[in-house]
Amino acid sequence: MKRLFGLPLLAALVSLAGSQANASCNCAARYGCEGEATAADGGVCEAPHYHTIYRTKRSTVMDRVEETRFRTVYDRVAEEKVVNYTKHVTETRQKQVNYTVMVPTYETKTRTYTVNKPVWETRTRDINYTVMKPVYETKTRTYTVNKPVWETRQKQINYTVMVPTYETKTRTYTVNKPVWETRTRDINYTVMKPVWETKTRTYTVNKPVWETRTREVTSYVRKAVPYTKTITVNGGSWQTQSYTIPGKTSYRTVRSAGKWVYNPCTCSCCYQPGTCCKIECTSAPTTCCKKVWVPSCETKEICCTKYVCEPVTKTCCYKVCTMVPECKTCTYKVCKMVPECHTKTCCYKVCKMVPECKTCCYKVCKMVPECRTKTCCYKVCVPVCAQRTVTCYKCVPRQVPYTVTKCVPRVVCEQIPCKVLCTNPACAEASTAPAAAGCGCNG
């Protein structure tokens, strides 16, 4: 790609060099259609010819060179150290706490309820079942426990209680004392006086008149008639039959034995459980007995009685009541209320509130703080210094060599021949010799 990209640039340089040579040597010519050349300065030039020149071409070539480098790698090195640490030991202490409890109060009540009374019936059947029989295996393991060390201490606590102190005070207050006063006044009032008036009115009433009549009544009497008929009675007996119940099929999952696998990342062994598989278990079939009712048909003759209704006619008497209208006259009194004015004198009492001062004594309770001291037991967690051995890991650097391939640029020089067109006779002589310094035909 670099060489192809350099070809147009090389052609442009060659054409520029030829034009400069023709200009310096006055060899620029114009060719006609028939090959005749006319000099630019009015003279006649020689026939055109070519000569070869060499140019230097520089190109860059990438060479692959292997180089050894070093990088730092950190290795984990285990180191055991003894570390001092503080552990907390629980200590028992005591203190007084006020709390509220709910005291149960019992109250007797009566209620009626319905229960289902069981009636037990004894039956027998065979049941096949599977039990898991324990097989004991003795194993030994080592474990670490933290043994608490309890320490009992006592301390004095100052607390404050409120002691009631009573103080007698006197205060004066005002009350309103009622004073009653008797007064008199006249009251005019109106009363309604009754005045009676006699009136007469006529009214019609319905008078009952009873009449005796007869009629024929037909009734039906039921008469018993005996007869015989043949019926079929369903009978039977109980028979014992045996049947077989197939065993139940169950599946259970069984895990195979696992194994311990070493984990290089944590430097420890991890337990890897085994695979799970299903096992089919089928129990033995069960034979049971049951009682079955076997029906049978029997023919019997029975005596029956049927009732037949016979009509009976009889004559009965009954009374009919007829309402006959009748006019009557009555006298009644009517009361009218006539207003009448009266005057009366009445006495009434008026209550006036007269203020009166009184003095009373009362007690005031003040809560005075009083300091007291009590001793209580409590538990505290006491730090105890101990030592244990821990494993620490530190990183130790080391140099690891590795090889890297890189590309190094290198400049390569190359001579490329070029042909130049020239009509100067001096240039023809110089085709085999180096071009003159004043001529531009060397490109």
Automatic annotation (TrEMBL):
Residues 1-23 form the signal peptide. It comes from Botrimarina colliarenosi. Keywords: Signal. It comes from the Bacteria. This is Uncharacterized protein. The lineage of its organism: Bacteria, Pseudomonadati, Planctomycetota, Planctomycetia, Pirellulales.
